Amino acid sequence: MNTAPPLLAENVHLAFGGLKALDGAGFSVRRGLVTGLIGPNGAGKTTMFNVLSGLMRCQSGRISFMGERIERERPHRIARRGLVRSFQIARGFPRLTVFEHLMVYGPRQPGERLGAAILGSAAARRREAELAERALAVAARLRLSHLVDSQVTALSGGQKKLLEIGRALMAEPRMILFDEPAAGVNPTLAEEIGDQLLSLAREGLTILIVEHDMALIERICQRVIVMAQGRTLMEGSFDEVRADPAVQDAYLGGRR
Ligand SMILES: Nc1ncnc2c1ncn2[C@@H]1O[C@H](COP(=O)(O)OP(=O)(O)OP(=O)(O)O)[C@@H](O)[C@H]1O
Ligand SMILES: [Mg+2]
Fold first, then answer.
1. Can you name the residues that pair with 215 across neighbouring β-strands?
2. 102, 126, 157 — which closes off a domain?
3. What does the pLDDT look like over 30-66, one tens digit per residue?
4. Name one Pfam family in it (predicted).
């Protein structure tokens, strides 16, 4: 059995000019848990997500996913390994319905398009039907079934946040990185999003979530990692982290 932690980042550096956004940050994430990644504004949390998902390349450091090094891999390869990141809703698909939007993000087999074009094959049609079934199941679990034929542009901000979770789920992930999935939504919906993440973790998905809403972090995270100024300050339970003087310092005086 593979006992490697799903995600392991070690000594990661990335500077923008003279600004050390990541200055030796590193942590590991445990399988099947919701882990919180917190820290003051500018701590490097989003930059870390960019590096983990391959959107930015770190200048040095090691990142392993399921025991294999990924720090030099392109984003689509990392996603295909099952490490998927959530975004703000994609602006590139304004005319799609919710159903179509989910279908666009379903996993594709290499060469599938070519195969389908040449053969129009039964296998390709079967694959399409499976994807459609998956899209409907994802919509149902996010309680978006009544909206599958609505245009994405017609959704409320909160519904778009749920759809963004759905997009990540369509990719058949083993682990999802959520960057502020509940930012700007009302408390009821924030709770709903929290419940969704908890139930995904219960089914075995590993989740790393950046979030400033500490009530949400306290409710859903079994572990919390604190970053400040491009480094990892500490890891522990929410209570341990909250009680730590260095963490309190980082939040009160650590802003640059
Ligand atoms: N593309 C970029 N070019 C230059 N500087 C950047 C870039 N992206 C981030 N930074 C800087 O790197 C530092 C870390 O930013 P980052 O967005 O990772 O912080 P964060 O922890 O996600 O903060 P927040 O909680 O406000 O989202 C900040 O000082 C930011 O201004
Ligand atoms: Mg950020």
1. none
2. 157
3. 999 999 999 999 999 999 999 999 999 999 999 999 9
4. BCA_ABC_TP_C
The ligand 1 atom at the shortest distance from the C-alpha of residue 44 is 18
- 77 lies in the same domain as 200: yes
Which DSSP letter does residue 140 get?
H
DSSP string across 94-153: TT-BHHHHHHHTS---TTHHHHHHHH--HHHHHHHHHHHHHHHHHHHHTT-GGGTTSBGG
**Pocket probe mutation, ligand 1, options 20, 27, 46, max atoms within 8 Å of Cβ:** 46
Shared domain check, 210 and 144: no
Q: Is residue 1 part of a domain?
A: no
What local confidence, expressed as pLDDT, does residue 126 receive? 83
Cα-to-centroid distance, 144 and ligand 1 (Å): 33
Strand partners, 223: 35
Question: Could you tell me the distance, in angstroms and rounded to a whole number, from the CA of residue 64 to the centre of ligand 2?
Answer: 22
Task: Report the CATH number at residue 234.
Answer: 3.40.50.300
> For residue 159, what is the DSSP state?
H
If one residue of 19, 209, 217 were mutated to test the ligand 1 pocket, choosing by the most ligand atoms within 8 A of its CB, it would be: 19
Domain of 106 in residue numbering reads as 91-157
**Cβ atoms of residues 178 and 209 within 8 Å:** yes
Say whether pLDDT at 256 is over 50: no
As given in the structure block, the two tokens for residue 32 are 């099947």
Token pair listed for 150: 């609505």
